[in-house]
Amino acid sequence: MILHIVAGPKPQAPTVPFVHPSLESEGFIHCCFDHQALKVTERFFPKTGEIWAFEIKPETLTSEVRVEPSNLGESFPHIYGPINPEAFGQRIRIR
Predict the structure, then answer these.
(1) 2-93 maps to which CATH number?
(2) Do residues 33 and 58 make contact, with C-beta atoms less than 8 angstroms apart?
(3) I need a labelling partner for 10 at 20 to 30 A (CA). Which of 41, 49, 53, 63 fits?
(4) The whole model's pTM is what?
(5) What is the Cα–Cα distance from 91 to 55, expressed in whole angstroms?
(6) What gap in Å lies between CA 22 and CA 35, rounded to an integer?
């Protein structure tokens, strides 16, 4: 399962193509696999407040997904373009 993690109160799935700022600054939108979610949350997100993840359904994505190595020694899914609304699946509370 591919997840896109977000901080803040109970987010809603976008109804228009989702463009994260990292798409412009890094060329892709960061995601993780479900088994990586807690590690990513602990390392990159605020220590307090709500953290949520949206399941991303790769079979309905209109943008390319590449699984690429990171400097953490693991490979992560990166989405090279906007995430179309149909690709958003369930919302999962991490914390």
Answers:
(1) 3.20.170.20
(2) no
(3) 63
(4) 0.92
(5) 6
(6) 22
